[in-house]
Structure formats: C-alpha cells, structure tokens
Design a protein that fits this description.
Elements (H helix, E strand, L loop, with lengths): L1 E4 L6 E4 L5 E4 L11 H10 L7 H4 L6 E6 L7 H15 L6 E6 L8 H8 L1 H6 L1 E4 L5 E6 L5 E5 H4 L3 E7 L2 E2 L3 E2 L13 H8 L16 H9 L7 E7 L5 E7 L3 H14 E4 L3 E7 L9 H11 L3 E10 L9 H9 L3 H10 L5 H11 L3 E5 L4 H6 L3 E3 L2 H12 L5 E4 L6 E4 L3
Parallel strand pairs: 3-19, 4-5, 4-9, 5-6, 9-12, 14-20, 15-16, 15-19, 16-17, 17-18
Antiparallel strand pairs: 1-2, 7-8, 10-11, 12-13
Helix pairs in contact: 1-3, 10-13, 11-13, 12-13
Length: 417
C-alpha cells in the first residue's frame, strides 16, 4: 500500500505491505447539531450539574469571567456575549463584570490583542484585564503541595465564570475545566508545584482518573470555587462544534466525552513501529509544535519499538528554552530529573520527549541538520521510506505498523487503558 504523509507543504509517500498495517488513525466523523454562538446559547440554557446562571448569580454581585490568553485557540468573542446577555437579564450591571485573561506564565496582552480575543463590543462594554502573578492572594494549599495563590480580582469576586476549550492535554488529561483558575490566574510557584507531577505515570493525555496533575488542579478549586463553566470543543478550523456549561467537573467531563468520540481511537494491541505526522505545514514548522504528535504516538508504541516522527521542522526547535534544554542535556534521564526539580515552560516539552525516549527510539524525518537531530537523542532521516526501511531492518520483516497521519489530533488507547 502506498500512503501519503504530510511533511511541510510537500507530502511524502511511503510503501508498506498491507498485511503489516494495523490501522491508519483518522478522526471519527460525528453528527453535529448547532454550532458557533447558537451552540453556546443552547448549553447555557441546559447546564450540567448546576442550576442556570439566573439562579446562581445575583444582582449587585461582582462577577469575573476568566478566559484564555492569546496563545490559545479559544474564540472568546463568540462565547462571552451570550454570557453577558444572561447576566444583564438577571440585572447585573456592566460595571460589576470583569473579564480576566488567564495568563498563567505568559506575557501580558496589548490592547489590540484583548480586542481581538473578546471583540470590540465586549472590550468597550466591560472591564478587560490581564491576570497578574504579582498581585495574588493565598487561599490554601493542596495536599500535593501546590499553593493556591489566586489573582486578587478573581479571589475577591463574588462569582467566577470560567470559559475554555477542551482538547487533549499531554499531562493534565484534557484542557479546560479547572485549568482556567489553576494555573491560569495563579503564580509561577503554583505552576511549578502542579506541573512537576507531569512525570508521574497517570499524568497523560485522555486520562482524568487518578491523574495527579488534574486531581491537584481540581483540589485547588475547593479553596477558590468555580461557580459556572462554559467549555467548547473546536474543529480543525477552530470553529465551535460543541459546548457544555455548568459544573466545572461534571460539565467538563461531558465535553471530554464528546472530544473522545471524534479523536480517541481504540487499539487492540500496540505497534512495533508508529509513523506519526502533524499532518504537514504549518503544524510541523518546528519541533516544539511537532512534539504534540509525538506525545500522542507514545500511547501506541510497544516498549523497545520505533516511532518515526515526521515533521519538516524547517525552523528548527522553535523555542529558546526548549532548545537550551534539548541541546544542553547529556541524556534523557537528565531532562527528566531536571523537570522534577524545577518545572520550566519550554523545558517541559524537552522532558516530555525524554519520557518517550525512555520507551522507544525516535527516527526523525525532518529538514533539520542531522547533527542537531543526533544531539537531541534521535536518528535523522530525509525520507519516511528510508526511516521505515531502517526500522524494519532493526525490528524484523514482520513488524506491525500503525500510521497516525494527524498525530496531534488523534489519541490511541488500549481497550484496558
């Protein structure tokens, strides 16, 4: 069988015997109902696990709407207007509403970026501000040692409404839910304490059961309650195709189930060889972006197997901190030990790659300098066919192959997983 795999803007072909291909993983097709702002309105009228906003919020209360920053794909401008309409019907004054952009550890926004995120009408109608890690209130401490330090405006509000988008997150299980508060409007020390748990076994994509990272995040909400969430699922065009509203755990989990129906793929067994791509440009512009596909592929590979990671990465590693960690380490073990000691954004992706390298070899098909690829513990190739032929030579002619042409958007799992 000849397969075409995305690689930058020039896809590559590879030939594999039909009998050796276990599966080719692509997103499942699901029937959709309402989409966009209409779907958001539907979810607001049908909350999960809570009463409607009209029974939760009272006139005269100070309300914060916590939303994602510019690094996230969330279309806040399609969600917040419907929430404001609900609040105004209750009698809430515009002066009592504040939109807070959850920066986490990211940089502040420009005025233009804030308008881009929420829309000009919302920006001019209510107060819109960035969270500030230097102005936080200590509200508690989780059993895992994470300080619940929350941006003062959020901590001192009467009601907290959190919005976000749900996608697979490689150590918190899924994005969305409690992540808007913790670490969204918290401090670097909280991020460090929580995210350092990413190296634990159950901290993995698609897992909400006994996930140490997610459990820690949810526990933090006992000290800083979330009164209502609106979380959406987006398609590949970043359009809203599903929305859930209500309780930060119950509604979130229903949203996760919907995501699973599209992007989670069941396996009967793991593969000897996994060929995985982000699907081509622009998603594979650098290794920092391409890492997401690699991390999903790790769930499908046998111990001692080979992952053929396909990505142009014509701009190299893509992040300065990530590059420093990857090129400055003597071994994958060193990266894992370093992230346990101190969580660092950028470094966390280096540690994630190191965890994959403990399980399998990585054959890297890219446009990067072969010497650079070797220095980061991978084997360099120019073509997928060449990488595959070498993998077969190493593992045997009967090696079973799994192909993930859209690796960043598909999550394989074993039935007992």
């Amino acid at each position: 069988m000849k397969l075409t795999i995305g690689f930058g803007y020039r896809p590559q072909e590879i030939e594999i015997q039909d009998k050796l291909i276990m599966d080719i993983l692509k997103p499942n097709k699901v029937e959709l109902g309402l989409t966009g702002a209409e779907e958001v309105k539907r979810s607001l009228q049908n909350p999960i696990g809570t009463k409607e906003l009209s029974e939760i919020v009272k006139k005269g209360e100070k309300i914060v709407i916590i939303t994602s920053d510019v690094t996230r794909p969330l279309p806040s401008y399609k969600i917040i207007p419907s929430i404001l309409d609900e609040l105004y019907e209750i009698g809430v004054n515009k002066e009592d509403v504040t939109v807070v952009f959850a920066l986490g550890s990211h940089r502040p926004h420009t005025k233009e970026e804030m308008i881009q995120l929420v829309g000009e009408k919302v920006y001019n109608e209510v107060s819109c501000i960035d969270s500030d890690a230097n102005d936080c209130v200590r509200m508690g401490m989780t059993k895992g040692g994470t300080p619940v330090d929350i941006f003062r405006v959020v901590a001192e509000s009467d009601k907290r409404i959190c919005i976000g988008n749900i996608e697979f997150h490689y150590f918190a299980g899924y994005s969305g839910g409690s992540k808007a508060i913790m670490p969204g409007v918290s401090t670097p020390s909280a991020i460090q304490a929580n995210h350092s748990k990413m190296v634990l076994e159950d901290a993995k994509a698609g897992n909400l059961v006994n996930n140490p990272v997610r459990d820690d995040l949810n526990e933090a909400i006992k000290y800083c309650p979330i009164d209502f969430i609106v979380n959406v699922v987006l398609n590949e065009k970043k359009e809203i195709i599903h929305s859930v509203a209500g309780d930060f755990i119950e509604a979130h989990r229903e949203g996760c189930k919907f995501l699973d129906r599209i992007y989670k793929k069941e396996l009967k067994r793991k593969a000897d060889i996994v060929i995985v791509s982000q699907g081509g440009g622009p998603k594979d512009l650098n290794l920092y972006q391409t890492q997401k596909a690699l991390d999903n592929a790790k769930h499908a590979i046998k111990d001692g197997g080979i992952i053929i990671l396909v990505g142009s990465c014509k701009e190299g590693l893509g992040n300065e901190t990530f590059e420093q960690w990857m090129t400055g380490a003597n071994s994958p073990d060193e990266l894992i030990a370093r992230i346990k000691n101190k969580f660092t954004l950028g470094g966390h992706k280096a540690a994630a790659i190191a965890l994959v390298l403990k399980k399998a070899q990585i054959f890297m098909v890219s446009e990067m300098d072969p010497c650079l690829v070797k220095s980061i513990f991978m084997k360099p190739y120019n073509t997928i066919q060449e990488a595959y032929d070498d993998a077969v030579q190493e593992l045997g002619d009967e090696s079973r192959v799994l192909v993930m042409p859209y690796g960043g958007s598909t999550l394989p799992y074993l039935k007992e997983y």
